[in-house]
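Write out structure tokens for Histidine--tRNA ligase, mitochondrial.
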Amino acid sequence: MQSSWILAIRSVRPSRRLAPTLTFRPTCLSAPASRRCFHISSPRPQDINPAIEDMAPKAPKFEIKTPKGTRDWSGADMVLREKIFNTITNVFKRHGGVTIDTPVFELKDSCRKPHPTGKYGEDSKLIYDLADQGGELCSLRYDLTVPFARFLAMNKDISQIKRYHIAKVYRRDQPAVKKGRMREFYQCDFDIAGLYDPMIPDAEIIRIINEVFEGLGWQGKYTIKLNSRKILDGIFQVCGVPEASIRPISSAVDKLDKMPWEDVRKEMVEEKGLAPEIADKIGKYVVLKGKRDLLEQLQKDEELAANPSMQQGFADMDLLFTYLDAFNAGHSVSFDLSLARGLDYYTGVIYEVVTEGSAPKVSAASADASAEKSKKKKGKAGEDEDRSDDPTVGIGSVAAGGRYDNLVGMFSGKTQVPCVGISFGIDRIFSIMRANQAKKERKNEVDVFVMAFGGGKDFTGLLKERSEIAARLWDANIKAEFLYKVKPKLQNQFKAAEANGVPFALILGEDELAQGKIKIKEMGLPEDHPLKEGELIDLKNLTKEVQVRIERKKQLDAIVAQAEGLRVVGGIKGEDVKVEQLAKEGEGGEEVKAEN
């Protein structure tokens, strides 16, 4: 006989304070087999142990923030950073650059060996070493140059290349985030590898530096400091620096952009063990700067001219100045004997780009007294403390590089591939441009905001028409957007456009559309401007009309940016009048033919 069962469920009122335990209890055993059942019940509240009331684990308490020396990027900051990336990339491609990519971490030995002090000299202490995660000791890359040298050593079929690389690097330096001194930051590198006639690639690198900063609107606001390791080493040798002390003394000289000569001399003598009279001899040379005239002055020094290292350096610099004249790239160069560059792998010409804000506002020596008072009150600052507001910390160089002919051989052991290159510090460039912005930066790159004009119960919102106009603009590669509302208020549409800094508005009205017209309005015009309320254009000419106005505004913005640059460096009297005249001329409309 087939049996059947009935499942009966009984439960008390549910409560989150109870930890239910289901029990099965057979009942009705005297009933026929076909009617037997089980009861399932949860425990009664009075049976619950209070100790297990809350079984959910508590979330740990911690401060939500980015690690020191890092930051998040969004909105207007991302727009500006992308502008910098695009400007630099376009210059790199113009000069025949091809891009590569390498791992964000390298084998630890690649960063620290085979050079006795590593490939970075005293800066090796700033390398982030990673824990052993599977048999290989690794470090986060300190720069993009050493990975490039390792890449060339592994790819022996590449004997010549113009390579560029844009990526993040990592340094355990004391951060000053507002000044672009980060622990995680972008570098944009361009290097020319291969055997060429002397100094031609070196001169092109300097031409590239000029193109990048002038493309960013920095005309007259930057200086390319130039020197040669051969000349600097020759000076040290003539002055009597022991061979083993040349690199440490060179690192001390490299601090002259941050410290006065007295402090650098003190480091040489007291920390590096250099004889005081030798330090004094060095001091007579490292304060000199100029252009070709300084080179000619040094060549007349018989003691320097007799040194083999100096002779090579003189020949290189003489050729370099000749090629810079041909490239029209020497106007921003300063031959500066204080430039040393701290990295040990440089072998020839070295350069560094500085601008207003690179040097600290207050020297470390002059700040000692106030620092001591501060330490007594607050205690000694740790090396992890952000120093954005410290006047003794400047932005530093915004680009740097030089010739490194032996670095590839440190990996391969045999093959040498001569290289010369430049590295742009994106975060430092960004911090300067962000601080100097005269107007609110756009949060995206949209050029046109499509709006609907109207109101009342019969207002449809013109969503279909707005969508069609946006599609036409997108098809013409014009950046555009509109508000995602069926019946948007005009005020809210303007607020959305203004919030993102969109320069133009296309305003649709039912009457205008019926006539085949649409209004275009440039945002932000002064109240007395004749086109403050916008102007009607033909729908059939829509994309051409919009493109003409966008291009005209870009030209005007470039003129204004250039004028701001002239004012910063003390522009000539009457420049404002000239700029205003050009701006007025640029506002004149152009006749646009109908689209075919």
